[in-house]
Amino acid sequence: MSQQVQFMQRCFDLARLGAGHASPNPMVGAVLVHENRIIGEGFFAKDGGPHAEVMAVRSVKDVDRHLIKASSLYVSLEPCNIYGRTPPCTNLILEEKIPHVIVAARDLTPGVNGAGLARLRQHGVKVEEAVLSQRGKILSEYRNVFVSKDRPYLLLKYAQTSNGFLAPLDGSTHWLSNGFSKRLTHKWRTETDAIMVGAGTARADDPALTPRFYPGRSPRRVVIDRKGTLPSTLQLFDGSTPTLLFRQSGITTANQANARLIAHDFTQPDWLPKMLAQLAEQKIAHLTVEGGAWLLQQFVAQDLWDEARVFTTKANWKVGLAAPALGKIASQEFILQQDRLTIHYNFL
Ligand code: AOF
Ligand code: ZN
Fold this sequence. Notes:
Blueprint: H1 3-16, E1 29-34, E2 37-43, H2 52-58, E3 72-75, H3 89-95, E4 100-103, H4 115-122, E5 126-128, H5 133-148, E6 153-160, E7 165-167, H6 179-191, E8 194-198, H7 199-205, E9 220-224, E10 243-248, E11 260-264, H8 271-281, E12 286-291, H9 293-301, E13 307-312, E14 321-322, E15 332-336, E16 339-345
Parallel strand pairs: 3-4, 4-5, 6-12, 6-13, 8-9, 8-12, 9-10, 10-11
Antiparallel strand pairs: 1-2, 1-3, 7-14, 13-16, 15-16
The protein binds ligand AOF and zinc ion.
């Protein structure tokens, strides 16, 4: 592995420490390197907080501070160039006279989107962009989708049998995989902004959608109950964590006490992108869709998905509802005891 690749990999590892707390900001990691020695490193820990580059510069020991102006700054994402809640990181880089910046991906936020790199180049900073760019894109894609597509990044998560069935015929998401896989899915829950399920799944499985088997924060819950017939005894309505409930506009059944009701016109052909725009307005930048079969199929049929994490188990049912046909081969594959986990990216 080249030195450049190792330092960028370190940026990614640092960036991931902000998972679940950075959104709707991106996860970002940065390292300052002087003659192959890391003299400072940092990551973006919390939305609204100091940026990774700032943390990296702050972490440099006093004895090493004079080396900053002869160092390379590796950052997983293009440094920002705008006054958000913090001043532009390009200012910091120029003030500290850092001569060399290496990034893995662009920040598509309007006002940045290449302008951060252009500004650095105009001031004589050497800028390189081609180190681990595919992995950099994967790391930052949720931010870039959120700021450029008026919708959250869409992660589909489901389990299927070895012969391609997603669910029993009643449409529930029958849990097919092992305890190890289940724990991993609860970790993922701590890293997403919201989890969506349809009414069939809510009724049949009564999911809580909280990360009970992994420490971390709970995502918001989103349920689609077009007819407004779900019972208030479901765990989704226990008030333990916020739930958004989408219901067909005009339906007048009583509201669920512990859910925020959003009336929506599902009869319109563009009901799905419109619903996603509403979720983006609620600052949901990363949405996980857990099922059931009908709901997953809506996303896949409209090509509205960015990533799919699919467990394939050894089970082999005779009948059931077919799993969605993603039409994208897996980029990654993991074996978790008897389950196979594949990760598919729609944007690669
Ligand atoms: C960076 N490094 O660590 C992060 C960046 O002021 P804010 O926090 O709202 O940030 C606004 C911009 O900074 C926006 O373009 C966002 O994508 C980017 N986030 N940028 O240079 C970081 N988290
Ligand atoms: Zn910044």
